[in-house]
C-alpha cells in the first residue's frame, strides 16, 4: 500500500489512539492540537503545591490500552504504570450508611452486612446481578466493542435479531433492570450510578449498560502511578518515537473540501495543508458546524446525538486531611431519580445531586503537601443550553449546595479549610476542549433518542473524512475513546486495502 497522508484534528486520547494505530499501519500522520499540550480532557493543573487531575480519575480496562501499545510493537508497562485502587468506591448516604465496593468477594460480602435485611439475600442478588452484567459485557464486547460496530444496522447484522432479543438487554432501562434484581434501595442507587462512566441517565440508557460494573469487578479499577496525566505523556512519548508529527497550539479552523471529498485543513493564521484523509477528534457536531459550515438541515441529522452531561468540576486543596474519604467516593442524592430527571429531562441544575468525590492522596501522597487533602467534586449537570438560561450565578449557587452536602456528610468545616481552588463550569469545558455544549463524555446514551449508539466513525457526506472520540461509537470514557481511535484506523486501512 502506498503511504497515504492523514491529518488528525485534536490530540485527545481518541486522536492519539487513531494517530498511533494509523502510523503503526504505515501512514504518514500529522496531528494538530489547539492547546499547548496533548491529552484533551485528560489534563492536569499544578497550583500552590497541589496537583489536580482536571479530567478523568478512574482508569479501567487496561487491556484496551495494552492493545494500542501492541499495535506499535511496544509494551504499555514501559510507558506508564498502574496501581490498583481499593476499595473501588466508597458510597455515602444521607441516613449515615457508608458502603464500600470491593473486587474481593469476602470483603464485599462483609460490607453487605451493613445493609438492613438478610445479608445472604443481598449477596445472592449481587451475584445474580454480576452474572447478568458479565453476560451483557461479554456479548457487547464481542461485537459492539471489538468489531467496532457503528449503528443499529451493523448491530443487527452482526448479532442477528434473535440473538439481539435473547442475549442483549436492549430494553427496558438500566434502572428498570436494576430494580428487578435488587431489593435494597442503596444497592439500586449505587448500581444506577455506574452510568456516571458515560454521563447519561439510568432512567434512559438501555439495559445493557448494566455491563459497566463488570468493567470494574472483573478487570479492576486503576490509578496511573504519579497521576493520570502520565497516561497522556506515555502516549506522547510513543507518538514521537513512531515519527508522528505533532503540532501543538495548532488550531484547525476549517476542513477544506471539493465535492464529496475533503482535501485538507486550514489552520488559524490561514495556512492550508493537503491530506488524503482527515480524522476529526473534535466532536462530530462542532466539526460539521464550525469546520465545514454545514447547513442546519444537514446538522439536523445529528439531533439524536445529543451531548452527554457536563459537570461542575471543583478542585479543592485543603489544609487538613478528611479521613472519611476513600480514593473514590459517591455521595448519593436523597432522590436519585429526581436528580436524573432534573439534569437529563428538564435540563436544570439539580437541588440535590449525586456527587462524585475523588481524594487521590489515598493512593498517591504526592498530589498534596503533607497534612493536606486534594479533593475533586463532580456533580453531573446539563450541557449548555441554546438559550443560556443557566447563569454563572446559578453555578455558584450550586457550588454552595455541593459544599453544604460535603460538610454535612464527610468533610466537616470544609469551607474553612480550603487553601486553593479551581472551579470549571460547562462554559470553561467547552472553551478548553471545544466539546459540544461543554459535554464531558461525548454523546448521551439514550434508548429513545439514539438506541444507545453514538455517531458513526465514517462521514456520510465526505468519503475520506472520519471521526473518533467520545461523540463516536462506542462513546465516552478513556478506554472507549482509545478503542474508537483503533477502530477508525481499522476502517481506513480496510477501505484502502479494498481500493
Ligand atoms: C471532569 C471529568 C471527569 C472524567 N472522569 C473520567 C473517568 O474517571 N474515567 C474515564 O474513563 N473518563 C472520564 N472522563 C471522560 C474522558 O475524559 C473523556 O471521555 C475522554 O478523555 C475524551 O477524549 P476525546 O479524545 O474524545 O476528546 P478530548 O479529550 O475532548 O480531546 C479533543 C481534543 O481536540 C482538541 N480540538 C478540538 N477542536 C480542535 C480544533 N479545531 N483544532 C485543534 N484541536 C482541536 C481539543 O483541544 C482536545 O484536546 C472525564 C472527563 C471529565 C472532563
What does it look like?
By secondary structure, the protein is an alpha/beta fold. It folds into three domains: 218 residues, 3-Layer(bba) Sandwich (FAD/NAD(P)-binding domain); 135 residues, no CATH class; 125 residues, no CATH class. 36% of the residues lie in helices and 18% in strands. The strands form five sheets. Strands 6, 7, 14, 15, 16, 17, 18 and 19 form an eight-stranded mixed sheet that branches. The longest helix has 27 residues. The protein is globular, with a radius of gyration of 22 Å. The N and C termini lie close together (10 Å). Bound molecules: flavin-adenine dinucleotide (FAD). Flavin-adenine dinucleotide binds next to helix 1 and helix 17.
CATH topology of the largest domain: FAD/NAD(P)-binding domain
In CATH, the homologous superfamily of the largest domain goes by the name FAD/NAD(P)-binding domain
Q: Hey, roughly how much beta strand do the residues contain?
A: 15-25%
Q: Compute the number of helices.
A: 17
**Uncertain stretches of 5 or more adjacent residues:** none
Largest sheet: 8 strands, mixed
Q: What's the architecture of the largest domain, going by CATH?
A: 3-Layer(bba) Sandwich
Total domain modules: 3
Topology, pairings included?
Layout: E1 5-9, H1 13-24, E2 28-32, E3 44-47, E4 50-53, H2 62-71, E5 82-84, E6 89-92, E7 98-101, H3 105-112, H4 119-145, H5 152-159, H6 161-167, H7 174-181, H8 185-192, H9 212-217, E8 222-224, H10 229-242, E9 245-247, E10 252-258, E11 261-267, E12 272-274, E13 277-280, H11 284-291, H12 296-300, E14 310-311, E15 313-318, E16 328-331, H13 336-345, E17 355-358, E18 373-381, H14 392-409, E19 418-424, H15 426-433, H16 447-450, E20 465-467, H17 478-498
Parallel strand pairs: 1-2, 1-13, 2-9, 6-16, 13-20
Antiparallel strand pairs: 3-4, 5-8, 6-7, 10-11, 11-12, 14-18, 15-18, 15-19, 16-17, 17-18
The structure holds flavin-adenine dinucleotide (FAD).
Amino acid at each position: 500500500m502506498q503511504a497515504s497522508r492523514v491529518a488528525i484534528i485534536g490530540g485527545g486520547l481518541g486522536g492519539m489512539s487513531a494517530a498511533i494505530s494509523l502510523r503503526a499501519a504505515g501512514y504518514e500522520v500529522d496531528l494538530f492540537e489547539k492547546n499547548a499540550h496533548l491529552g484533551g480532557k485528560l489534563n492536569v493543573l499544578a497550583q500552590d503545591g497541589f496537583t489536580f487531575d482536571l479530567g478523568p480519575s478512574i482508569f479501567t480496562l487496561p487491556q484496551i490500552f495494552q492493545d494500542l501499545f501492541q499495535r506499535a510493537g511496544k509494551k504499555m508497562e514501559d510507558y506508564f504504570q498502574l496501581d490498583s485502587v481499593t476499595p473501588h468506591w466508597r458510597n455515602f448516604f444521607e441516613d449515615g450508611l457508608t458502603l464500600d465496593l470491593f473486587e474481593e468477594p469476602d470483603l464485599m460480602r462483609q460490607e453487605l452486612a451493613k445493609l438492613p435485611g438478610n445479608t445472604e439475600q443481598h449477596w445472592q442478588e449481587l451475584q445474580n446481578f454480576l452474572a447478568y452484567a458479565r453476560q451483557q459485557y461479554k456479548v457487547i464486547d464481542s461485537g459492539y466493542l471489538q468489531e467496532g460496530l457503528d449503528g443499529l444496522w451493523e448491530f443487527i447484522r452482526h448479532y442477528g435479531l434473535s440473538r439481539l432479543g435473547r442475549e442483549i438487554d436492549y430494553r427496558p432501562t438500566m434502572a428498570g433492570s436494576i430494580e428487578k434484581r435488587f431489593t435494597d434501595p442503596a444497592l439500586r442507587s449505587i448500581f444506577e450510578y455506574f452510568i456516571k462512566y458515560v454521563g447519561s441517565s439510568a432512567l434512559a440508557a438501555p439495559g445493557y449498560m448494566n455491563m459497566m460494573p463488570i468493567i470494574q469487578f472483573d478487570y479492576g479499577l486503576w490509578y496511573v502511578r504519579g497521576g493520570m496525566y502520565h497516561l497522556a505523556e506515555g502516549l506522547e512519548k510513543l507518538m514521537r518515537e513512531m515519527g508522528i508529527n505533532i503540532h501543538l497550539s495548532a488550531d484547525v479552523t476549517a476542513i477544506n473540501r471539493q465535492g464529496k471529498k475533503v482535501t485538507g485543513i486550514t489552520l488559524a493564521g490561514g495556512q492550508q495543508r493537503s491530506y488524503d484523509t482527515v480524522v476529526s477528534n473534535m466532536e462530530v457536531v462542532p466539526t460539521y458546524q464550525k469546520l465545514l459550515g454545514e447547513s442546519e438541515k444537514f446538522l439536523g441529522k445529528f439531533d439524536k446525538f445529543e451531548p452527554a452531561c457536563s459537570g461542575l468540576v471543583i478542585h479543592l486543596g485543603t489544609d487538613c486531611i478528611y479521613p472519611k474519604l476513600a480514593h473514590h467516593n459517591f455521595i448519593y442524592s436523597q432522590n436519585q431519580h429526581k436528580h436524573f430527571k432534573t439534569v437529563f429531562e428538564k435540563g436544570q441544575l439539580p437541588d440535590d445531586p449525586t456527587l462524585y468525590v475523588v481524594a487521590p492522596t489515598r493512593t498517591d501522597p504526592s498530589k498534596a503537601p503533607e497534612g493536606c487533602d486534594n479533593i475533586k467534586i463532580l456533580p453531573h449537570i446539563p450541557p449548555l443550553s441554546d438559550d443560556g438560561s443557566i447563569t454563572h450565578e446559578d453555578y455558584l449557587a450550586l457550588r454552595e449546595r455541593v459544599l453544604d452536602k460535603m460538610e454535612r456528610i464527610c468533610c466537616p468545616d470544609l469551607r474553612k479549610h480550603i487553601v486553593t481552588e479551581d472551579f470549571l463550569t460547562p462554559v470553561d469545558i467547552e472553551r478548553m476542549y471545544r466539546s459540544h455544549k461543554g459535554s464531558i463524555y461525548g454523546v448521551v446514551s439514550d434508548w429513545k433518542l439514539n438506541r444507545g449508539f453514538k455517531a458513526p466513525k465514517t462521514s456520510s457526506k465526505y468519503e475520506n473524512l472520519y471521526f473518533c472520540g467520545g461523540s463516536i461509537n462506542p462513546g465516552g470514557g478513556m478506554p472507549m475513546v482509545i478503542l474508537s481511535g483503533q477502530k477508525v484506523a481499522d476502517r481506513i486501512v480496510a477501505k484502502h486495502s479494498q481500493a
